[in-house]
Each structure stands twice: as structure tokens, then as C-alpha cells.
Amino acid sequence: MRKKAVVLLSGGMDSATALAIAKAQGFDCYALSFRYGQRHAVELECADQVAKAQCVVEHRTVTIDLGMFGGSALTDLNIAVPHELSKPDEIPVTYVPARNTVFLSYALAWAEVLSSFDVFIGVNALDYSGYPDCRPEFIAAYEKMANLATKAAVHGGRKLTVHTPLIHLTKAQIIKKGLELGVDYGVTSSCYDPAPDGAACGTCDSCRLRLKGFKEAGGADPRRYKPC
Questions:
Q1: Cβ–Cβ < 8 Å for 111, 117
Q2: The domain containing residue 205 runs over which residues?
Q3: Is residue 164 part of a domain?
Q4: pLDDT tens, position by position, 175-208
């Protein structure tokens, strides 16, 4: 019997690669996306395309409203998205407070209902924007907490594993791995400030990291960008 995994799928490059890795490892994948009030909601259209292309068992999109709290350029239209790389020692204004904690909690709930003990998340701690909830320490702490919080763990002795297959990879390494697994990056979107038609800006923190990754991987990014 094949194992089941819940995979957090934003529609971006990293989560699409994490999904491909989960499938390559033999999991039946259940993809989970979120409409959380993000200004770059075009990523959800991409998530649908990625889920279909990778033949997941089921893809669900949960609607929550992190925008009601604000505090991030991704959920508050009054805060501008920066169009330069963030400084290594600063947490940028594109950080959404508690986002990965919330997302993982939904994934944990669905996994328990599915009798799944594996959750995949495409966090990265090398070429990333400096978000605190992308660090190995956070993932380890969350996994420990999760195994104190579920019926399956407490009564059944079945431990949940939070898989982070990209956490120690550069963007170039992520891209190369995804291409090996047949990921179509043309249907993914990483942009924080896309045009109304979905074209990527090319200058936000996330776009710059993505473009840098493709350059270092020796290929061209197939995503459509706004004209210079």
C-alpha cells in the first residue's frame, strides 16, 4: 500500500519541486494551497496547473484571511513590495507573520484525517528571503509539537515527519533537481508583485532569487515577465 503525503503547494517554484520529490519518493500526494489574502493570488492559478500536471490525488485550496491582521507587504496593499534583494540580517516586509505555522497546522489536520504521517513543505534556508519560519530550527520545533498534538501520535504511536527536501539547496540546485523530475517551471509563479495579467515583475526579492537561480543553473526562466 502506497503512503500518503500532504504537500503544501503555493504555485511557486520551490513547492512545485517539493511536490515532484514527494512523488518520486513513492508517495500518493494530496496538495494543499491557501487563499490567504495575498496580493499575488495568481500563484493559485499556477498551483492548480502544477497539481494537474503532477497528477496529485486531490488538490484543495483553503480560504483564510491573514490580511485582517496586516503586517506584511503581501497582505496589506498599503505596504509596498520592495524591488530589491533584502539585506541578509533583516527580515523583509514581505514576511507574513505566522504563515508557515498556520499552513503546517492545516496540513497536519488533513494528514491526520487521511491517516498520513508525512507532510512536505518547500522551505529553503540558503537562497531565501530571510523568513524565520523557513529555518531548520523552526521545522524541527514544529514537528516535535505536532507529535504531541495528534491522536495518531499520542495513542497510536505513529509519528509525523515534516519533510523539507529543499532546505539545504541553492535555487540553482532546486531548479536542476526539478528539471530532472520533469517540473514545468513555466506554469509556476514566484513573483510578489505581478502585473494584473500575471506577468512577473522581475525585480522583487523573490523574482531576483529565482532569476539568479536559473542563471546559475545555466538555463532561462520560462516564466513570463513584464517588459523592462
A1: yes
A2: 4-217
A3: yes
A4: 999 999 999 999 999 999 999 999 999 999 999 9
